[in-house]
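Consider the tokenized backbone below.
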């Protein structure tokens, strides 16, 4: 008699395999014990894994949806043809962004190694890992300085009247001007120093010329607050000046928060990203509702979306689309490899890459409605076209938006919401940047640094980068930050991406 036994290939369905899932009983269940649950054990006992798949997804969202999503994409969209810019942007996303995003997740998940040691598969390309480590290291230094600025503004918002809402502060100059000039400028007039509207036919040529010169040199209170009160900016990069102790303390607070978030590696990191990944969407939705009730909102949205099809023939538009994809999805920085290296071996990283990458693109598009809705309101208040108030980068986050918020009823509340959103966006990306640096170091010397010594690596990396970040808390710090921002992770990321693709193909051939 022949007995046929059917053997099921459980490795094809890892979800049904307790060992693969990491569910290993730590004791035998008692028949009367209904509270028994198996103990969750990491699949990779040496490096550890995410506690669940949701934490990995949240960490990817928190990393990819950063400050650039809020302050860079909407500006690039309007500057490069409005709605027409979405065509090259989506094409670059499909041809470059999504494939690189998936490739890094798959590579990191398969090898369970950091950006440098992952190239054991083909040591010839290990320099790519060092380049990724350098990019993340440099970006992490100045990124937390921006977080420190957000802390500064957040603390300043806990008041009845925002300090950048008027020109009567010690740091204000005679060029500071805050007038509601919409009725005057629409009629072709200019405001004098007392706020009265004067017209050319009512003024002498000398007075009219002086009014025009004053109007051109005037600065908003939020502009002077950022440059004079927050930065105390010097005349040039050669003029170092002293350290702004308020910024230094805010920077220290930022690094303390990052340190404690990563103290236990991905176990503590995975808990922190629930807040940093979800809360920005809550705030953006609240700000969108508020912006939609303001005058000028439609003007800002139309300015943001109206397509200029002729711009599609310009190479610069396609170049900006490619560059923004690298800013938005953050491939070639080492962060994606690091996050994926803590996945279980059979995780569906293709599905994850589709969800996270597509969600990031949609978030950037959604953020444009929030940003340009407020910019439309500000243009309405100033009596100027939207293009004259639209800006990007630090100018948007710390000058244009605060100026617009200061003109709203209950301005401190909206200011607090906005800067808490900036903090969560900045910290979410900063967590992954530091984790990339720490993982790279620990994986290079696992016998000495893994386990109990992990926390000392986190502490050492945080202290070193805090001390280097103090150079951007001086009066010339803004110039140093702009140098790093313009050169650390822009064209260099494109070069790394090209070499990464070549190295990946070569690795497959070598293996």
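A designed sequence for it:
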């Amino acid at each position: 008699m022949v007995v046929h036994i059917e053997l099921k290939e459980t490795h094809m369905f890892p979800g049904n395999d307790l060992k693969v899932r990491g569910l290993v009983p730590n004791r035998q269940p008692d028949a009367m014990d209904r509270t028994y649950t198996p103990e969750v054990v990491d699949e990779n006992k040496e490096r550890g894994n995410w506690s669940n798949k949701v934490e990995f997804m949240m960490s990817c969202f928190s990393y990819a949806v950063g400050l650039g999503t809020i302050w860079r994409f909407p500006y690039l969209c309007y500057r490069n043809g409005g709605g027409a810019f979405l065509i090259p942007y989506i094409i670059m996303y499909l041809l470059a962004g999504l494939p690189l995003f998936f490739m890094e997740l798959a590579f990191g998940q398969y090898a369970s190694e950091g950006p440098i040691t992952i190239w054991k598969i083909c040591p010839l390309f290990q320099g790519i890992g060092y380049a990724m480590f350098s990019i993340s290291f440099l970006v992490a230094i100045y990124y937390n300085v921006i977080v420190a600025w957000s802390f500064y503004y957040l603390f300043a918002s806990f008041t009845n009247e925002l300090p950048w809402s008027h020109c009567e502060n010690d740091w204000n100059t005679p060029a500071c001007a805050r007038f509601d000039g919409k009725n005057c400028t629409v009629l072709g007039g200019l405001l004098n120093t007392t706020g009265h509207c004067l017209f050319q036919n009512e003024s002498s040529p000398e007075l009219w010329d002086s009014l025009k010169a004053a109007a051109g040199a005037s600065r908003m209170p939020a502009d002077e607050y950022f440059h004079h009160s927050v930065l105390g900016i010097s005349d040039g990069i050669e003029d170092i000046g002293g350290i702004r102790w308020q910024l230094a303390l805010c920077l220290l607070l930022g690094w303390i928060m990052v340190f404690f978030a990563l103290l236990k590696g991905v176990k503590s990191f995975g808990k922190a990203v629930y807040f940093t990944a979800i809360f920005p969407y809550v705030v953006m939705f609240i700000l969108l509702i508020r912006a939609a009730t303001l005058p000028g909102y439609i003007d800002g949205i139309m300015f943001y979306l109206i397509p200029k099809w002729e711009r599609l023939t310009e190479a610069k538009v396609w170049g900006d689309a490619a560059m923004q994809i690298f800013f938005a999805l953050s491939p070639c920085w080492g962060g994606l490899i690091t996050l994926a290296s803590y996945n279980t071996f059979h995780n569906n990283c293709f599905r994850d890459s589709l969800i996270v990458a597509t969600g990031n693109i949609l978030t950037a598009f959604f953020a444009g409605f929030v940003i340009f809705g407020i910019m439309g309101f500000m243009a309405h208040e100033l009596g100027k076209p939207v293009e004259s108030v639209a800006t990007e980068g630090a100018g948007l986050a710390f000058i244009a938006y605060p100026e617009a918020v200061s003109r709203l009823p209950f301005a401190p509340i909206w200011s607090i919401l906005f800067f808490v959103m900036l903090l969560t966006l900045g910290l979410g990306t900063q967590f992954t940047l530091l984790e990339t640096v720490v993982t790279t170091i620990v994986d290079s010397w696992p016998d000495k640094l893994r386990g109990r010594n992990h926390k000392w690596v986190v502490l050492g990396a945080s202290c070193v980068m805090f001390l280097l970040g103090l150079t951007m808390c001086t009066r010339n710090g803004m110039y140093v930050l702009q140098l790093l921002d313009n050169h650390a992770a822009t064209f260099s990321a494109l070069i790394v991406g090209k070499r990464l693709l070549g190295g990946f193909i070569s690795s497959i051939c070598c293996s």
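Residues 1-39 have pLDDT under 50 and may be disordered.
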